[in-house]
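Q: I'm writing a short explainer about Methyltransferase FkbM domain-containing protein for a general audience and would like to include a description of its predicted shape. Could you first generate the structure from this sequence?
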Amino acid sequence: MTAPDFPSLHVDDDTDPTSARRNGVLIFGCGGFARDVRAAAEANGIPVVGFVVSAGTPGTCDGVPVAPLTGLPAGWTNLPLWIGVFNREAVSDYAAIVDACRTAGFATPLLPQQYYATLAESLGWRYWLADRRAYAAHHQALTGVFAQLDDTESRTRLADLLRFRLGQSATIPNAPDAGAQYFPDFLCALATEPIGFVDVGAYDGDTLESAARHLPLREAWAFEPDADNFPRLAERARHLTPQTTCVPCGASSINGTLAFAGGHGEASALGAGGNTRIQVVRLDDCLPNARVDYLKLDVEGHELDALSGAEALIRRHRPLLAIAGYHRWDDLWRIPEWIAGLGLDYRLRLRIHAHNGFDAVFYAY
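A: Of course. Here's the predicted structure. Afterward I'll give you a sentence or two in plain language.
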């Protein structure tokens, strides 16, 4: 693999709010994110003329016209088209969507990262979406991470991910990665002895089950605070061979209670807008005497807080780390900087396990 160059962080402004407010826009898709984009656009004085879908028959969605790419009303291809799809699924691959829209006659469909800044205040936090112009201010931090990464593949992934987030490319080549999420071969090869595994953000036990397939587990601890997810986690854990302790708590930098938006499956998350409150614990205090050899963290944007609460544990055992790095736009450098700041000589790699930049994971060893 050819050594990659660090990409330019310069971006051109693709949106024209003045023209959009005057003529309106179209939104590709009519799912939850597309409807949220419509509400945010209209809150910013931008009328939404209609929704565009890949196939089907004309209709309406929330009172707005819906038309398939094969049956667009006259004049629609002259309007700006904003891609209103934002998830990790294969059917949502942006390159394929953009190609289909261009084939239908749209000149420059815009990705969510290209128009997000116009709607940011109304849309709020949406994982890694951010004002693309803000990346340039963190050039030094990002080039530091680029140099910190241990292999050419990781540096290629970071460069391609940045180009994608900056709207310079509609795709991330060779992503999703073929390896198992959280358990790539290069990390599992280092787990030669029976290990203690900690799964934070254990959801329904799917990662715990995967760990049992990929690692020689001695013991496992699984943390999951969502009231709907936890019973499924506990049931799954009953059928696993290693001794497993399931803990109905989240992990953070404090021991206490925090607001939590529950009932959203694997997307349940800590946050001020939560509909309930949950117990959170510092892993340092919850597992003071446990031998931890492998730590996985995927907690919907609370990764740095959870790491802070596990610093003593990490310093004591130097476990292999699998840390989700895509929930917030600045995870790209803040998580690697935190790991480097430990001064433990961790080596770092990056892999992307889903479409559109989702499920990017930092692996440290």
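A: For your explainer, you could say: The CA atoms of residues 284 and 313 lie 6 Å apart.
Q: Perfect, that's easy to follow.
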